[in-house]
Amino acid sequence: MKRSRGSCDEGNDSSEERRKKKKKKKKKKACSDSDESDGSRKKRKKKGKKSKTKDKKKKKEEENFAEMYERELRDYRSEDSHETEDEYNKKKGHIGSHVGMLLKPVKKLPAPENEYYKATVYEVVTVTGDVRGAGTDAKIFVTLFGEFGITPKAHLTSKSESAFERSKTDVFRVRTNNVGTIRKIRIEHDNTSMNPSWFLDRVIVTDMNRPHLRFYFPCNNWLSKDDGDGLNVRDLLGTLNPMDVPKGNKYIVRVFTGDINGSGTDADVFINIFGQYGDTGERKLDNDNDNFERAQEDKFTLDAPNMGRLRKINIGHNNKGGSAGWFLDKVLIEDIGNKANYEFPCYRWLALDEDDGKIQRDILVGGAEATGMVYNVAVMTGDVRGAGTNSKIHIVMHGSKGLKNSGKVFLEGGEFERARTDLFNIEIAALLSPLSRVSIGHDNCGVSSGWYCEKVTVYCPFTGIEQTFPCGKWLDEDEGDGLVERELYEMLSMRQKRLKKNPWSLWIWTSDMRGAGTDAPIFFQIFGDKGKSDEMKLDNNSDNFEAGQTDKFMIELPDLGTFYKLRIWHEKRTPFAGWHLQKVTILKTLTKEKYTFKCNRWLDVNEDDREIVRELPAEGSLVTEVMPVIKYRVTVQTGSVSGSGTDAKVFTCLIGDQGDTGDRLLSNSVNTTNKFEKGSIDEFIIEAVDLKQVRRVRIGHDGRGGSSGWYLGKVIVRQDGQPESEAVEFPCYRWFDKNEDDGLIIRELVPEGRSYILENVGYHISIKTGDVPGASSDSKVLIKMYGEKGDTKKEFLLISDNDLEDYFERGRIDIFTLDTRDIGKIKRLLIGHDNVGLQAGWHLGSVQVTIPVHGLQYNFPCNRWLDKNEADGRVEIEVYPSEIVPIEILINYEVVVVTGDVRNAGSNANVFMQMYGELGKTEVLILQNRSNNYERGATELFKIEATDVGKIYKIRIGHDGSGIGDGWYLETVSIKKFATKEERKKKKKKRKSGDEEENELPSMEGTIDTYTFAAHRWLASDEEDKELVVELMPEEGLEPEASVIVYEVHVITGSVMGAGTDANVYVAIYGERGDTGERHLKRSDHMNKFEKDQVDIFTVKAVDLGDLKKLRIRHDNTGSNPAWFLERVEIIDTKEETTYYFPCQRWLAVEEDDGQVARELVPVAEAFVKKDPNSSSSAATLGLEQK
To answer: Transmembrane segments in this chain: where (predicted)?
Structure first.
């Protein structure tokens, strides 16, 4: 390397000059010690030091690649990677690359790293050889490898039709990245057209910024699948002397196929060798023999530049042929030039139907276990005619500056049909994310080889970065520019930051005893001090969980901190599904953190305690204390109301200070056979790792069975063996029924003395089904939300708030509510369906989650299929919010309404209520649910989300008088809410400062205020005072001056022609201390109300309003003559004996005046009313005041 740089600066030294220099050096070495001066001794010491540093460098070079790679992963910092890649794309924009967007300025990279991003023009001259058939019609590409990096693949295009013809010299200008001193080039063609074979004599590359740097790359070989050695890609070494012929290297590759049944393959095998100085590129291993047969050794010779110490190989096949599956024992490589031998042991299948289903593997030198980086690749085929292809698609992922790449990876198993998205998991031993670019192409084989690629998306769980690479072009020799491989660049505006996950190795040890194995699918979940994983299913292509067998799986987990337990289970309750688990071991492949979870028990409905779920405490060097396994005795008391029992399957989950038990089916009752009958008390044992203090109980049923509705009294939880005084009681006394109460069949309960209605958060989920043909679905839709404080369970959305008959119909919005514990700000959600039904597929438009108690609304645009037969075939997806919109903050109220136990006390009318407090008033609230409300002696419980009114001083409650038997005897109303905190004012000040408020949500805890309102009266048109509305004050904390008073309302109709009305008239009176709400003026002292020049007197009872400020009067425009001319309204406060005058003198009519049927009037002095009614000035002034 140093020599080549020297030659670049000094020019070409002749061979004679070199010989002279060597002789001088020999003479200096031959000098005796006596002749040496002090200065020469110092120089020799310095040389000695230099030689030592060189030795150190050599030692560094000889470091274990696996250790270097693991160190790179451990030292990874996402912020650094972001800056580098943004800089890359920014510079690409200056170069005029495919990324045409401006980016925010980022930190300057230190030179010479920054040199790579400077635009440079290279002149590339190709000389085609003078042999028969030397010319080519294929498309030629060149890649430059230099000291600063590697350029993207450049297409050498020419307007001349005679380019690359025999004996022809072609000149091209390539504008690309600056790679500094060029070390080698890779030149290739795409093997398209009628005559793709090409005999290349040489290539000359000149850096136009430094024209004296002209590099010569002799070739004198075929680039052809049919001629020479069958390669259509070559790596050429350069020299500044056109007469020099750089020497390459030879690698002898010995491939050993395993000696097991079916181990041989008929597929084409490829290898890519990676070393210190790059890679060989993909090479097909082929000779005249019948290669890769069972127990056979095959030998191949590869010509390539010197790659220094070898680090890894990527070996695989293209899955062609009748028996493509291949069991590879090992690969031995002899480096002829460097006189070194390398072993790459494998001992695994490369087969779609064996092992992990991979047909390509990265193998490190010596078979060292390395952390495989997983890349989730989604390839979208365009929605244009003929877009699909039968060709073999491949991809190459390139890291920063192109210095590292994945090698060519075949995307097997994809359909690549029109408008489909194919998903692939690529595992390689290289950290490339964030990618600088991807290369995607195909082999141009098959009947319809052309392909229209829409885009490629790559997500790396380790970095949490998802990148989108748009294409929107044909890869077809007969379409567009004829390319069958393209370089794609990221659209940076679409980059997403996802959840970071680390790779782990998981071993499952099935016991070595009779009947220990199982065919059931196994699920598990891991708990750490920073959270818990998702529930994961263990599956691969092998026959797992056999007796005496150890099964290994690769999984990805987010940062969960130190693990303390694992839950493992299966879901089969059938005979022969039982499983005896010995232990589970898990290892973080990066840091070698290891945990063991011992079991040695059955998961079988016919063995042990007949449970199929086990919780196992973590053991290992990282675990300071092994948690005990506790038996919890759960007592479930079914209510004694009519029809309270259930035939459905009931499950529960205990939630404590340290984790939860997960949903456990309550199938094995300790004391009863027929469970969950009316008035019954059933006991169950739940075994789990110590939860510490149990804080919540989640309980529900599956909604199946003839009589699935269930009325639950309470749940009692205590540790088995402890006294009953230690038990914690979780009261409920509500229905779990789709047709009763609020329709919920799952509830979260809190201990007695607390209110789960106030503490739980309502998540209102609006789901819009797409407006495309076939968008509707018959499947059951499920959702799971992930928040800062935890996540919800996967919940099926069974009961819609807007009561539509068929859910998830085309173009429609379905609204659901999940009532659960506070999970904080939502980070992402999972949504999908169970894929069951005649029309299971579903097109999801968008999801909106509104959380009133947080004052936030989350929007999740989706616009995609969840269908096995559409797009990427997925039926579950994770989505992230595109925007978070602030909304009005509401709080939870618990409202209990008791109907009296007197004859005909019940009502079928619609009941409403409004609350007034020190901070304001709520909207008019409708109190109803799915039950038959307000029956005689009934107690109704409602959860209301409304604005915080502070300390409540009155409520207004009534009904609309609709239905048969509308009269209602109201006994009492009680309201619970969290006390309003004075600190909220301080928080509002903090909001102005900014940062703190952004992460702060209203607390769902605090002191509970209870307000009781005694009514003991009829709200009926034929009882007592015949009023349907009443205002009530709380029994506790009554203000001395507060009382219910009677307001006399005198309504004076005008004397103009046609002034009277037949419509229904309503009035609302506003004062210093609230308002009366809108009251229907029904009972006047006249039979025929609101007639011309008539005064009608009404009474309105309300809590003292103080001084009156205004009134609002209107009519409903019904009847034969609704138009009404109102002269004025007079209101007498009977307590203060004060009269308020509200002049109007205007029409309330759609065909008169301004067409309004409602007016707001303000009080005036009595003297104003007594003025001459014919005075024009008074009318004009009145018009200004009254609306």
So the answer is: none
Measure the CA angle with vertex 925, ends 746 and 799; round to 5°.
25
Provide the Cα torsion 915, 917, 923, 926; round to 10°: -20
Asked if residues 126 and 170 have their Cβ atoms less than 8 Å apart, the reply is yes
Q: What is the DSSP string of 217-273?
A: EEEEEEE-SSSTTS-SEEEEE-BSSTT-----EEEEEEEEE-SSTT----SPEEEEE
The helix (run of H) or strand (run of E) holding residue 40 is helix 38-61
Tell me the Ramachandran region of residue 608: left when phi exceeds 0, alpha when psi lies from -120 to 50, beta otherwise: left
Sequence-distant (6+) residues with CB within 8 A of 1064 are 1080, 1115, 1116, 1118, 1119
Name the pTM for this structure. 0.78
Q: Give the Cα separation of 487 and 498 in Å (integer).
A: 25
Tokens of 764: 């209102």
Q: Rounded CA gap, 332 and 252, in Å?
A: 8
Percent of the chain with pLDDT over 70: 87
Classified as helix, coil or strand, 95 is helix
Scan for tokens 């009005």, then name that residue.
888
d(CA 644, CA 733): 10
Q: Which of 307, 395, 480, 400 is nearest to 109 (CA)?
A: 400
What count of residues does the chain have?
Answer: 1187
How do residues 777-787 score in pLDDT, each as one tens digit?
999 999 999 99
Which of 370, 265, 393 is closest to 314 using CA atoms?
370
Residue 1041's φ and ψ, nearest 5 degrees, are -80, -10
> By CB neighbour count within 10 A (0-12 exposed, 13-18 middle, 19+ buried), where does 195 fall?
exposed
Amino acid at site 791: D
CB 590 within 8 A of CB 73: yes
| Lowest pLDDT segment from 95-109, 406-420, 670-684, 1142-1156 | 95-109
Name the average pLDDT for the chain: 85
> How far is 747 from 417, CA to CA, in rounded Å?
45
Q: Residue 1037: left if φ>0, alpha if ψ -120 to 50, beta else—which one? A: left
The neighbour count for residue 809, using CB atoms within 10 Å, is 14
